[in-house]
Design goal:
The complex is a heterodimer. Chain A is mainly β. Helix content of chain A is about 5%, strand content about 20%. Chain B has one domain. The chains are: A mainly beta, B alpha+beta.
């Protein structure tokens, strides 16, 4: 039985399962009532050890997306002149359960009924354009998305298993609402360390890689415009899904990301425009609000998996452990390694 | 005779530069990389004056094939290895296990499943890694598996809890002159040290010493210990060369996804 991918900074988990995981039900994080902090074990999968549970706190559920305009940067700068946005960040409105209704749970979840709240009482769709919050699919692409969504809890085909469950990188845009993440900055680079996968944004204005190379996280070339990091993304392999609702693009997608940082240093909006005429009738825009987490925050098993460093007698420092998705290291189907002694 | 004049002045300049080098490094007769040895003057340095290892690095050695001295064989070129004394001091029981690993290496080497290579194997594996450096940390970004290791240089200590069992170990570094000294521990027992089946368990402990020998070459040394596996600590040394090809960059290699890539064909009309 397939247990959800969950990046940990600890060793192997006990694995009781055998055989091809692809035919198994995927335990999923069910709904807004059961935030995605504790992947439930299903079938014969071993229950996660206690320390794999999140340390306090749950998934944040703000209802609105702040307005942050592109403009001047008046905040701190690094020595190379970049706005200093280094640190820990996480999205504010939900996880990857549902792209267009971020607090609406996963459709068809057998263990969790649809939300009873009114749609307008939940956070808006991550699709900020078109205005109806829906993806402007071509009919064939919509059919494929629905097929995945329907197969998610009845995964009779390998392709219905969300790749992230196998520890594949979350890709674009899902990385921005799959756990908290860290930004590190260097002259010429902005580096994202996500829960599943990492991304190097090149600020060197060079050309994209040859089109023969396709990548989970794409090839990213960026520059700063005031408070906004503008990144041009190509070379996506488009194997990652936007969420458990199955949205996808084709390999011919071109993404322009705008990371618009509030001068308060505490918030930013990820605003990405996807152009992919092979699957969509027009470009669309994804908006993901995020906020900064610091050592003033409590450790949180979803947004801020960052303990305090061992630094006795000195000011608190956030410690950053390796983020290695355990199943990476177990190969397909988790069948490679036995439970530890 | 303008050209001759120019050549002469060039020679004079070179001699002056050489003289300066001699003056700076009198006594440095070889590439001794011990902490006490002086560093070449023209190495990249950070704003805080520390050596700046930022860049893309890769070994040209065959260390990953076999750390010990060995003859050529079908799956490895010959080599003297990178172990001081040529032989790893395994306990008798551990040596038996190493031999078994060697016999089954074509299937059992964790690298074939694209598991995170660990420390120090990731450093001398024949695929590039990039170093990003700030005052508070040195980030080692491996192309293989796209895994990321943080060497903390902010004065923090190993975590109080010692049972994290990291794939890459917990790395705390400090500077001794121009040498970055890194204490690495709290490992799991899942990684190998080479394709030849060299291994360790959770008591694995690595102390690394990173030092420039010129602006484009790092002398990487490590003292390796595991009282459960080896009879005494042992040393390795390998040079890392900077990639200087125009436009060279890491290309993400999430190779562990290849086993299931086939299940995610591009959705087609």
């Amino acid at each position: 039985m397939y247990s959800i991918a969950h990046t940990r900074h600890i060793g192997p988990i006990a694995l009781a399962c055998r055989g091809l995981a692809i035919l198994a039900l995927i335990p999923t994080v069910a709904s807004t009532q059961q935030p995605a902090t504790a992947p439930a074990a299903a079938g014969t999968a071993a229950a996660p050890a206690a320390r794999q549970q999140p340390a306090g706190g749950g998934l944040a559920y703000e209802k609105t997306v702040p307005v942050i305009e592109s403009g001047k940067w008046t905040g701190k700068r690094l020595a190379d002149g970049q706005p200093d946005v280094s640190g820990d960040w996480s999205n504010t409105i939900g996880n990857h359960n549902n792209t267009t209704d971020p607090q609406g749970g996963v459709p068809n979840d057998p263990r969790s009924p649809p939300p009873t709240t009114k749609r307008e009482d939940r956070a808006p769709s991550r699709i900020s354009d078109p205005a109806d919050g829906q993806l402007p699919y071509l009919p064939w692409a919509r059919a494929k998305q629905i097929e995945f969504q329907n197969g998610f809890f009845n995964n009779t085909k390998p392709e219905y298993v969300e790749p992230l469950s196998r520890c594949a990188p979350a890709g674009i845009p899902k990385s921005f609402y799959w756990h908290g993440y860290e930004i590190r900055q260097y002259p010429g680079y902005v580096v994202f360390l996500f829960n599943s996968g990492s991304r190097i944004i090149y600020l060197n204005n060079q050309q994209h890689l040859p089109s023969a190379i396709s990548l989970w996280q794409g090839d990213s070339r960026g520059h700063w415009e005031g408070n906004t990091l503008v990144v041009d993304v190509s070379n996506l392999n488009s194997k990652a899904r936007f969420g458990r609702t199955g949205e996808f693009t084709t390999e011919n997608v071109h993404v322009v990301e705008r990371y618009i940082f509030d001068n308060d240093g505490k918030h930013y909006n990820y605003v990405a425009t996807f152009t992919d005429p092979d699957a969509f009738s027009r470009p669309f825009t994804v908006t993901v609000p995020a906020r900064r987490w610091t050592t003033d925050d409590k450790e949180n098993g979803w947004h801020y998996e960052v303990p305090l460093a061992n630094n006795p007698g000195k000011p608190p420092i956030a410690d950053h452990f390796e983020r290695i998705c355990v199943e990476n290291n177990f190969g397909f189907g988790q069948v490679a390694v036995q439970a530890k002694k | 005779m303008r050209s001759a004049t120019r050549a002469q002045s060039l020679l004079v300049g070179m001699a002056a530069a050489a003289g300066l080098l001699v003056a700076t490094h009198s006594g440095a007769k070889d590439l001794d990389s011990s902490t006490a040895a002086p560093t070449p003057s023209k190495i990249p340095r950070s704003a805080d004056g520390k050596p700046d290892f930022s860049g893309i690095w890769q070994t040209t050695s065959a260390a990953d094939y076999d750390l010990e001295a060995h003859s050529g064989r079908k799956d490895a070129p010959p080599g003297v290895g990178i172990v001081a004394g040529y032989v790893i001091p395994y306990t008798p029981a551990a040596l038996e296990k190493k031999k078994k690993n060697f016999e089954t290496r074509e299937a059992a080497d964790p690298r074939l499943k694209c598991w995170t290579l660990g420390t120090p194997r990731g450093i001398y594996y024949p695929e590039p890694f990039q170093i990003f450096q700030r005052a508070q940390d040195v980030t080692v970004f491996f192309e293989f598996g796209h895994s990321v290791r943080t060497i903390h240089t902010d004065g923090t200590l190993h975590p109080v809890d010692t049972d994290h069992e990291f794939w890459l170990g917990d790395s705390r570094g400090h500077w001794e002159g121009d040498t970055l000294v890194v204490d690495v521990k709290d490992f799991n027992d899942q990684t190998w040290l080479s394709r030849a089946g060299d291994f360790h368990d959770e008591a694995f402990h690595v102390v690394e010493r990173w030092k420039y020998i010129d602006a484009n070459t790092i002398d990487y040394k490590a003292t390796i210990d595991d009282p459960n596996i080896y009879t005494k600590p042992w040393d390795i040394e390998v040079y890392l060369y900077r990639h200087r090809e125009p436009g060279f960059q890491l290309i993400e290699n999430y190779c562990y996804t290849h086993d299931y890539d086939q299940y995610y064909p591009l959705p087609k009309e």
